[in-house]
Amino acid sequence: MVSSGDGEVRRVDADGQTEPMAGGGEKPSPKAALVYNPIKVDAASLRSTVQRLSQQAGWQEPLFYETTIDDLGAEVTRQALQAGADAVLVAGGDGTVRAVTEAMSGTGIPLTIVPSGTGNLLARNLLLPLTDSEAMIRATFDGDRLAVDVGFAAIRRQDGTSEERAFVVMGGMGLDAAMIANTNGDLKKRVGWIAYVDGAARSLATAKPFRIAYQIPERRLHSARVQSILIANCGSLPAGLELIPEASVADGELDVVIFQPKNALGWVLVWRRVAWDNSFLRRFRAGRRVLSLRTKDNSVLYSRGDGIDIATQDPQPVQLDGDEFGQAVRMRCRIVPGGLVTMIPKNHDTSRL
């Protein structure tokens, strides 16, 4: 299509000749694309709902793309964008959302998250309706836009090769990544995120601390022996657990959590911090007063910045948004403020984000 000198939109045919478009030069209606993991969703029902709501909104026939084992969603999302999609919907687990986000970051094209899968932690952190898929699909056509941050992790292997991948929830090196690698896939399909408890038990049995050097931009270099280091864009976990109560998906910063328990008691303190202090006491004024009087311990350390550079001598497992990415000797993370435009239901409360 081209625009003539008088501002009228015209269609160009195969020979390069132009003709006015039907309807008096109206612009073509927009088009949505749905990227979904067929294992995680009721594909027929989902496609039907997207098709119906697209039609009601006056949009074109939507495009549909399935993910595969070889393509978790990034490549088909690029295909959707090349096909002219004006909006993309994603339905699947956290890994599918991560892959689709990687392809959409910086494009300005809005993404709608249709909650499904084991965790959908980004949807949880955005306080989206987790059981009303139609409400989220409808938000594609009549909702509000919300720009959220996207993290990127440049991962370097021991052989010198490297790759940079996106994450929207959190990445990590050490025990958390080992836990994910040790989680039984079939058990995860049956019981969801609870399967990670089994993975944690397997990993803790052989967990050993390792030394890292890490630096947040414009701050001094640190060295520590840790069990795990997390780099988070979001702070909430399933079951109402708050790993980082102050984390915001739209503050332009990454939150860093270092776990360095020295013994079994240290792990008890880690659990107390996450499950009791962060997830319960902080909700109440009296609880916050108790926390202000409590002696600090070093089992869990928190920091924040617009990036972090982590190096270790021995390769350690790495995870991004719950997917394992092998082992690495260095991970350099950065944040892209507002890198992803998301669609949320109209008048959705964003004051707590």
Automatic annotation (TrEMBL):
This is Diacylglycerol kinase family enzyme. Residues 1-31 are annotated as: Disordered. Its cofactor is Mg(2+). GO terms for biological process: phospholipid biosynthetic process. It comes from Microbacterium pygmaeum. Keywords: ATP-binding, Kinase, Lipid biosynthesis, Lipid metabolism, Nucleotide-binding, Phospholipid biosynthesis, Phospholipid metabolism, Transferase. InterPro entries: ATP-NAD_kinase_N, Diacylglycerol_kinase_cat_dom, Lipid_Phosphate_FormReg, NAD/diacylglycerol_kinase_sf, YegS/DAGK_C. Pfam families: DAGK_cat, YegS_C. GO terms for molecular function: ATP binding; kinase activity. Belongs to the diacylglycerol/lipid kinase family. Residues 27-157 form the DAGKc domain.
